[in-house]
Amino acid sequence: MTDNNAAVQIVRDFLAASMAPDPVRAATFMSDEVRITFTGGRPMPTPTDITAFNGGRYTWVKKALGQFDWCEREDHTVVYSNGTLYGQWPDGRSFSGNRYLDRFEVKDGKIVRMDVWNDSAEWMLVPEIAKA
């Protein structure tokens, strides 16, 4: 089983590569059979798909990493990362304070599952609730 600190570091390293964005490096932290589900229940087969999706939703986006929490399961470690997103919408408006929560499962040194939630869809639907 993966050590707690090692699992959190794997997630941190993955997030850093994702934000670069360097989907090739990000993929090195993931199992070949990784299951990624993005906001709205969208399946993302690879980190390259994540980069492409974000490229269509934002001009650019980064994460202000917040807290990491983890717990051990029978054969893997669950790691939660929360914080906020900041960046620019395609129309040029800046944003910050957009909450996110990512849940990862790390097994044998690789991310095997990733689930992503954030406020972007709500902010796009009702722009006046967004903080810039």
UniProtKB/TrEMBL annotation:
Xref: InterPro entries: NTF2-like_dom_sf
Name this protein carries in UniProt: SnoaL-like domain-containing protein
Source organism per UniProt: Pseudomonas reidholzensis
